[in-house]
Amino acid sequence: MIKKEMIAMLLAGGQGSRLGVLTSRVAKPAVAFGGKYRIIDFPLSNCINSGIDTVGVLTQYQPLRLNTHIGIGIPWDLDKNVGGVSVLPPYEKVGKSEWYTGTANAIYQNLAYMESFHPDYVLILSGDHIYKMDYQVMLDFHKAHGADVSIAVMPVPREEASRFGIVVADENGRIVEFQEKPEQPKSNLASMGIYIFTWEALKEALVTLSEQSNCDFGKHVIPYCHEKGETLVAYEYNGYWKDVGTLGSYWEANMELIDIIPEFNLYEEFWKIYTKNDILPPQYVSEDSVIERSLVGDGSEIYGEIYNSIIGCGVVIEKGAVVRDSIIMQNTVVHEGAVIDKSIVAENAEIGARAQLGVGEAVPNRVKPSVYAFGLAVIGENAVIPADVKIGKNTAVTGVTLPEDYPDGMLAGGEILDKAGDVQ
Predict the structure, then answer these.
(1) How many angstroms separate the Cα of 402 from the Cα of each of 316, 337, 386, 417?
(2) Rounded distance, CA 134 to CA 112, Å?
(3) What is the pLDDT of residues 311-352, one digit of tens each?
(4) How many angstroms separate the CA atoms of 222 and 178, rounded?
(5) What are phi and psi of 102, to 5 degrees?
(6) Which is higher by pLDDT, 245 or 78?
(7) pLDDT given for residue 75 in this prediction
């Protein structure tokens, strides 16, 4: 009989709609991060660094790139005969086919997978956060408190607490109350969406709540366990943790990597972040180029100027082009004389000669003001921007665009140009 003390279930099926065109063709956990990584690399690396060698990755929305990236788990040493990494999409059952309709419903639909390992504990993770955490330390805390459920929490500023699920705990760490995005928070401990369950407690809750529509951990499973009188404890985490769910937080988290002393360090020997590395030549940096405080991925060719930016693998920055405070994802070409300011350019895009991104004043986006904000210009993957056009702030552009798509050669701030049908 196969037996694992703890297995991990990694929820990676989210659409990530607040990332706008960055997630129109790819699941949020597969979005590029830090020049060479994808967001899902961080929880996967945490698992293997914590000694967890059995991980189920639950996919649903646009899973192709995620599946290709994970493969059989070789980069994370998760290519095991027993356990390892398994990609778990929804599948057709006798008489019906079901999508995952909530975080807990997704886990419920994979009870048989979990059962096959006879685990004592199950670790539930999200695939879209940037952080380093030793889950073994959290498991030790769980055991020491004789808990049925442990919830990882972190202190947040009081004024921001109403954005999170808030946990109220007593002096022993035992949870006495939950508040889901409360107007008047009773504590500043925010749930991180990381849970350890004893297997029996998880199974019983999921089976009991199986008819609940859109069954969710925060809204249904945790309150159910609490009401049942089970022991719930708060595991306080004080390291770096970033939810990169908005364009602003995604841009910020990338920019924090190039701080003089980065709060989140990619270079630590004892806690490596692993990823699928394509076989690429080294970077080429010409004698005329300028690079200041930036990360530049393998296989890139730099002939222009880069300041305070994250440049992905296989990117070409031609002579006379200037990139500032921006994220340029892999295999993008920035032609000569183009100027890119505070922008996010997705994979395989082409920026025409002398085009200017991120110009003018920041005005609210006309269609999606809550998504296309933060003063950013966002270019979708495979987009083509013609030569000599200007694009304002709080904008989004997708698809192959032509000069005639830009009245007077300009896409004004706050506008969207969607030639690929990616803006929903």
Answers:
(1) 21, 18, 6, 11
(2) 27
(3) 999 999 999 999 999 999 999 999 999 999 999 999 999 999
(4) 9
(5) -175, 165
(6) 245
(7) 73
- Residue 98 reports pLDDT greater than 70: no
* One-letter amino acid for residue 351 of the chain: I
Pairing of strands 92-93, 96-97: antiparallel
Q: Which residue has the tokens 């991120």?
A: 358
- Residue 166 structure tokens: 């808030």
Instruction: Find, among 268, 267, 242, the residue nearest to 255 by Cα.
Output: 242
* DSSP state letters, 177-193: EEEES-SS-S--EEEEE
How far apart are the C-alpha atoms of 161 and 422, rounded to whole Å?
A: 33
Q: What is the DSSP letter of 22?
A: G
Closest CA to 219 of 297, 147, 266, 165: 165
pLDDT at residue 196 greater than cutoff 60:
yes
* Residue pair 233/151 in contact by the 8 Å Cβ criterion: yes
Taking the C-alpha atoms of residue 1 and residue 114, their distance in angstroms, rounded to an integer, is 13
Report whether 362 contacts 64 (CB < 8 A). no
Phi/psi at 295 (nearest 5 deg)? -105, 135
Say which residue the tokens 């305070």 belong to: 308
Helix intervals (H) in 237-374: 247-256
E strands of 263-392, at which residues? 284-285, 290-292, 295-296, 301-302, 305-307, 310-311, 316-317, 322-324, 327-328, 333-334, 339-341, 343-345, 350-351, 356-359, 377-379, 384-385, 390-392
- pLDDT of the residue at 91: 62
Q: Supply the pTM of this predicted model.
A: 0.92
The Cα–Cα gap between 276 and 38 comes to 9
With a cut of 60, say whether residue 97 has pLDDT above it: no
As a whole number, mean pLDDT of residues 118-128 equals 93
Q: Which amino acid is at 70?
A: I
With beta carbons less than 8 A apart as the criterion, state whether 416 and 365 touch.
yes
Task: Name the residue with tokens 């300009």.
Answer: 410
